[in-house]
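Please predict the structure of the following assembly.
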Amino acid sequence: MKTYFDCIPCFVRQSLDAIRSITADEEVHENILREVLKMASEMDLRQSPPAMAQRIHRRIRELTGIRDPYLARKNQLNRTALDLYEVFHERVARSDSPVELALRLAIAGNIMDLGVKSNIDESHIKKSILNCLNVPFDGQVEDFQREVDAAESILYLTDNAGEIVFDRMLIEQMPLQKITVAVKGGPVINDATRHDAEMAGLVGLVEVIDNGSDAPGTILDDCSPDFLDRFTRADLIIAKGQGNYETLSESPGPLYFLLQTKCPVIARDLKCPVGTMVLKRSRASQSVNKEPKTATSQTGAGE
Amino acid sequence: MKTYFDCIPCFVRQSLDAIRSITADEEVHENILREVLKMASEMDLRQSPPAMAQRIHRRIRELTGIRDPYLARKNQLNRTALDLYEVFHERVARSDSPVELALRLAIAGNIMDLGVKSNIDESHIKKSILNCLNVPFDGQVEDFQREVDAAESILYLTDNAGEIVFDRMLIEQMPLQKITVAVKGGPVINDATRHDAEMAGLVGLVEVIDNGSDAPGTILDDCSPDFLDRFTRADLIIAKGQGNYETLSESPGPLYFLLQTKCPVIARDLKCPVGTMVLKRSRASQSVNKEPKTATSQTGAGE
């Protein structure tokens, strides 16, 4: 997805929000603000929003000298999510439709995104998770299930710390030997890295790799050759969150996006309201005939 | 008032909103967006927000080649307000507290501000006007009235087209021979110019001057010597709207601000919620002893 004009003021606002959450030094706030404005004034709008966010957050780390400014918040999100895991993984196990419930929870976990708003409190997370159990969810769960069953190798692209614990609940509903989980190659916002996969209990459960990139999404040109090889060879890719949608929406699949729409630009792109739980097969997947193991009807929540 | 960091993303958003309301040409949208970002990256934050807005809207006029991009919308706002005038000036005349009602209406009229949002529909205006009649209004109307009575010369700084018709209702409650109404020296957003004072029926009723400036506020350094002379000599200044507050909040008075708070930065500065109807004597006025004709207690709505 290209960067829309409307993304630009939002970048500026988010950058200010981010830097304020990292340091109280107003001189750093002003430096970041001015640099973001200058970067944005010159940016190539054919790039996806995460390309810009990658540059901004690299600069925030440089200017503050903090390697991982979100570390404490990421750990807290993981702990909150692990508490919720205790409650919900039993519930999934007892459910009549465990895959649907696990899908709902994995998408609900996508609320734990500090890129949109740099602070998010526990009560908001819990409310959002509980809410996800009841909202309409028009995703084609059966199609998803069929593609999971047919695939021999599944690459699961995680999004955020905290959320990754909810990803585990979905992953546990799939044949574990098929799954490779990918995290980011380095810290950016609260995106999950290997450390978070460890906290979530995924390391040891399934294979965990990193993508070699510190972009808050999956910019293929920025990923490692090893990751690209896995990406190309996977029978099915599951991509979590807005950042992965923004960077992979035009990518050939088979690829499922699981996300909550948190901004009007993406909601418009997905033709659904802000706040929708989305399970959507990649548009680009439709025309790709890479071993068409299942019907590839487009799926989506709230459409 | 200086420009706060939070004003910057808002400038960018408002500029995009403004240029979209003027032309559908996406190349012009992109040009304006990039120029605004570059200007903002270099701007002197000690300047008030209207100084930046002045530059942005000059550039919009240059790039589009349209001398007064808001003309049609200003005329429409004046017509809407004139229809409402028919209803309300009778109501003011019959009121037990006509000055308070006229103050309320003049402040309510401040909703007609296309700087905050470039389109505003008639039903929203009507709703806002009716609402103003009932909301709490803690302004010190008696102090205001006393200062009006004591002053020999009153300079009334208007804000927007449409709103200026509501200003007329307040002006009609004051001794007309004392009043000079000031409008902007040239078009900027939907700020009132001489043309709007004419449509509002103020020309002929009171003296109307312009301030020689095309800033959406009153940047004294940018105003004409004639206007400055009037500004300095006036016994009392009545300043409408956020732009005048932003540019004159530190100016020695005696000066009353009449506005609706439409942004969180100004609301914070005025220590009241967004959407408050404000009648406030300038802080700077407190320490000035220019013929202290009345008690100069600070006044404000919703504080």
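Chain A has two domains: 7-64, 71-287. The radius of gyration of chain A is 18 Å.
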